[in-house]
Amino acid sequence: MTIMIIGLLIFLGSHSVRIFAENWRQQQIAKLGETNWKIAYSVVSLVGLAVAIYGYGQMRLDPFMVWYPPMGLRHAVALLMVPAFIMLVAAYVPGNAIKAKLGHPMMLAVKIWAFAHLLVNGRLGDIIFFAAFLVWAILAFKTAKKRDRLSPPAPVNTSKMATIATVLLGLVAYAVFAFYLHMLLIGVPVFG
């Protein structure tokens, strides 16, 4: 579990710079240049994510159960993940009304994903893993909304087609992940 926690600290730590050290971040961008900053940030993030995922896999080999979630909660998770995938896609499709309305749909998607997975995972390592992401998403969303209040983003022209495409892509991504990739990558079937 230690490896997973180290990975989480690296990954979520790098993603928390805007929460806790925005001035330092701006200094580094000025010093290194935006491109070099993004490269360094990406490398640190990817290393942290890889270590966290490896550690998560290792933690699952020797689990410590805190509680045994009822099987019925799996249905709630499957349902909660539908809007999470749509919001995740909304973060990247330009001109969609979902992003315009929510402002930071990726952080909301992470909140839903983490909360949903806390409902159905009773191992200590799972609780630490998903709770860490939930706490990060709550803090990151709060910080982003504060930045928006201080410097409101420019209004975005939205289109129905972009919004429809966002929803459809989110549903397709959900279906592919739920019916195929979750079992392949995580080793746990979503349905069944």
From TrEMBL:
Domain NnrU as annotated: residue spans: 3-189
Keywords, comma-separated and alphabetical: Membrane, Transmembrane, Transmembrane helix
Bilayer-crossing regions: 37-56, 76-94, 114-141, 162-186
InterPro entries the UniProt entry points to: NnrU_dom
Protein localization: Membrane
Domain of life: Bacteria
Keyword Transmembrane helix: yes
Membrane topology reported for the UniProt record: Multi-pass membrane protein
A single GO cellular-component term on record: membrane
One Pfam family cited in the UniProt record for this chain: NnrU
Range of residues in the leader sequence: none
UniProt name for this protein: NnrU protein
Organism (species): Halovibrio variabilis
